[in-house]
Q: What sequence folds into this?
C-alpha cells in the first residue's frame, strides 16, 4: 500500500513540476475551461435556449476544437472553420434546391453524386502542400458541412432555419474562443519563434565556449556524458519542423508586441536556417572531439592558444547576437568587435598550422559568414 | 481571354501531374467519397432514418474526421474517438444524475463546475508529450462529449436514448471508415516508412557515387545547380519529423505484408538515426567541394584513384543495403564484399596522404560503422 502511495505522490510531483516548467500551460487549461463554461450558458439561460435550441451544441463543438494553445492556432482554426462553414452551407442549400427539381426518386441520387464528387475533390485538394499548410482544417470542415446540409436537406424542409442556427452558433463559439485567446494572457506563436531562435543561438555559443575546454582536455578527463549544457546544440539539428509550425501559425497573427503590422516570420526562417547550418558543422566538430584519433602533441600545443581565443570570441559574438535579438536592440558595435577579434584569432590559427590539418579552420571559416549574416 | 485559358490548362495539367505522382492520393479521395455516400444512407433509407433520426449526422461527422490517408491514422483516430466517447458519455450521464440531487437551482452550478474542472484537466493532460503523441485526439473528443452530454442533460430527460444514438452512430461511422481503409487499397504507414528509409540510403549512395566526379572535376566544370540527383541527400537532414510521424502511425497498425505480428518501427527509427548521421557528414563534405580552397594538385593526383575506389565501393555497399531492405532479403555477402573493398581503399588513401589533410578519411572512417550497423 505504501508503495502505491509513493507512486502516486511521485506522479503528482511530476505533474506539478510539468506545470511549473511552463505556467502558460496551466493558464491555457483554465482558459479552455472558462470558455466551455461560458458557452454552456446557451443551454442554461432560458431565453438563449429558446432561440437556439439544440444547435447550441455546435457552439460547444466549436469551442472545444478551436481552442488552441497559441493565438495563431486559434485564429487559423477559427477563420478556417467560419469561412468553410459559410461557403459549404451556401453550396449545400444550392445542392438541395437543385436536387428538388429531379423529383422524389431522383433526389437522393443527385445528392449522392454531388456529395461523392465534392467530397472526393476536397479530400484530394488537401494533399496539395500549400493548401495542407494553411487550409487543411478548412477543407475538412467544408466536406463536413456540405455533406450534412445536403443530406439533412433531404429530410427537413426547414433547411434555411437550420443553416442559420448552425452558422450563428458557430460564430458565437468561434468569437468567444478568439476573444479569450487574444485578451486573456495571450500566447503568441511569433513570440515563441522569436525566443526559440535567440535560445538556439545561445546554445551554439555555449558549445563554442565549451569546445576549447573539451578539445584540449587530457584524454582521461573527457567525460562524454556530463556536459549536457555543451551538447544542447544537438536539439537544433532536428528543430526544423517545430520552427515551421510556429512560423506557419505566426503568419495568422495580427501585429503585437514590437511588431506593429505583421510578424516578419520569413526573416526568422532565414536566420533559423543559418543557425541549423552552424549546428551541422558543430555536429562534425563534436565527432572529432569524441574520436580517439588525436593530433600529435607538439602540434596541439602550437594551436591551443589562438584556437581558444577564436572559439571564445566567436562564442561571445553569438551571445551578443542572441542578446540583441532577445531585447530587440541592435548593438552591432559589440558584435562586430567580437567578430573582428575572432577573425584575427583565425589568422593566428592559420599561421600556426600552415600545411597541417585544416579541418577546424575551415569549419570556422564557413561559420563566420553565417554569424555575420544573422546579425543583419 | 486566351491568357486565362492558358493559365487554366496549365493548372489542370499541374493537378493531373500531382495525381499521377502518387496515384494513391486519387484512390484515397475516391475512398472518402465512397464512405460518405455509404454513410448518407442513414438518411436516405427510411427504416434507418426512423431508428436513428438526426443522430445520423454524428456518423457523417465521424467519417469525415476519421478518414485519414494511412491505415494507422484511421485506426488511431477511430479507436481514440470510440473509447473517448464511451468513457466521456458514461461520466457525463453520471454527472447529470449527480447534479439532479442538488435541486433545480443548484443543477447548472454543479454542472458548470464539473465541466470547467474536467475540461481544464483534460486540456492540461494534452500537453504531456506521451499523451500528445498517442491520445491527443482522444482527449479532445473526451472534452467534447462530456460537455455535450452534461450540458444537454440539463434540458432533456431522454439522455440515455440520446447517448445510445450517439454512440451507435459513431460506431457505425468509425467501422465504415476502418473497414474501407483496411480493405480497399490500404495505405500502410509502416510500408511508407520502410520505403522512405530504403530511399534515403539510396540517396546517400547516389551522393557517394557522384562525389568522386565532383571533387576531382576541373574547377570550371563544377556546376552547382545541375546535380540535383547528387544533392538529394539534403532532404534527409530534416526528415526526422516525417519519420517520427510515420513511426507513430505505424505502431497502431496490425500486422501486414511480411511482418506478421507488429511493425518493428523502433528498429526503423534506429536505422533512420544512423542514416541522418551519415547525411550530416555528407553535408560537411559537400561544403569542402563547393569551397574555393583546394588542395595542391600533386596531392590531389596522388589520392585521386584510391579515393574514387573508396567512395564508389561505399556507394555500392549502400545501394546493396538499400536493395536488401527494399526486397527484404538479407544478402549480406554482397554488402560485406563491398565494405571490405572500400576498407581496403581507405587503407590505400591513408597510405597516400600520411601527414596530410585527414578530413575525407576521417569522415569516411566514421561513416563505415554506420553502414555496418545498418546492415544488421
A:
Amino acid at each position: 500500500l505504501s508503495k502505491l502511495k509513493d507512486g502516486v505522490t511521485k506522479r503528482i510531483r511530476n505533474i506539478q513540476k510539468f506545470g511549473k516548467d511552463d505556467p502558460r500551460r496551466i493558464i491555457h487549461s483554465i482558459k479552455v475551461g472558462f470558455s466551455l463554461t461560458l458557452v454552456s450558458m446557451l443551454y442554461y439561460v432560458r431565453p438563449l435556449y429558446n432561440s437556439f435550441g439544440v444547435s447550441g451544441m455546435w457552439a460547444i463543438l466549436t469551442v472545444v476544437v478551436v481552442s488552441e494553445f497559441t493565438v495563431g492556432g486559434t485564429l487559423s482554426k477559427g477563420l478556417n472553420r467560419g469561412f468553410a462553414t459559410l461557403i459549404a452551407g451556401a453550396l449545400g442549400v444550392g445542392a438541395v434546391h437543385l436536387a428538388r427539381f429531379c423529383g422524389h426518386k431522383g433526389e437522393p441520387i443527385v445528392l449522392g453524386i454531388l456529395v461523392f464528387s465534392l467530397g472526393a475533390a476536397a479530400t484530394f485538394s488537401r494533399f496539395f502542400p500549400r493548401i495542407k499548410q494553411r487550409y487543411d482544417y478548412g477543407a475538412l470542415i467544408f466536406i463536413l458541412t456540405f455533406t450534412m446540409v445536403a443530406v439533412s436537406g433531404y429530410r427537413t424542409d426547414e433547411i434555411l432555419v437550420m443553416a442559420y442556427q448552425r452558422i450563428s452558433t458557430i460564430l458565437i463559439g468561434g468569437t468567444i474562443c478568439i476573444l479569450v485567446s487574444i485578451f486573456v494572457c495571450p500566447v503568441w506563436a511569433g513570440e515563441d519563434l522569436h525566443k526559440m531562435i535567440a535560445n538556439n543561438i545561445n546554445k551554439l555559443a555555449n558549445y563554442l565556449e565549451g569546445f576549447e575546454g573539451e578539445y584540449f582536455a587530457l584524454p582521461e578527463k573527457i567525460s562524454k556524458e556530463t556536459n549536457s549544457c555543451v551538447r544542447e546544440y544537438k536539439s537544433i539539428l532536428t528543430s526544423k519542423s517545430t520552427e515551421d509550425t510556429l512560423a506557419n501559425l505566426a503568419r495568422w497573427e495580427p501585429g503585437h508586441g514590437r511588431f506593429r503590422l505583421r510578424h516578419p516570420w520569413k526573416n526568422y526562417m532565414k536566420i533559423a536556417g543559418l543557425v541549423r547550418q552552424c549546428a551541422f558543422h558543430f555536429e562534425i566538430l563534436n565527432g572529432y572531439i569524441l574520436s580517439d584519433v588525436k593530433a600529435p602533441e607538439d602540434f596541439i600545443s602550437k594551436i591551443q592558444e589562438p584556437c581558444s581565443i577564436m572559439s571564445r570570441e566567436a562564442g561571445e559574438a553569438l551571445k551578443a547576437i542572441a542578446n540583441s535579438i532577445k531585447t530587440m536592440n541592435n548593438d552591432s558595435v559589440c558584435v562586430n568587435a567580437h567578430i573582428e577579434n575572432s577573425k584575427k584569432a583565425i589568422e593566428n590559427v592559420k599561421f600556426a598550422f600552415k600545411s597541417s590539418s585544416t579541418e577546424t579552420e575551415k569549419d570556422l571559416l564557413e561559420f563566420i559568414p553565417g554569424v555575420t549574416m544573422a546579425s543583419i
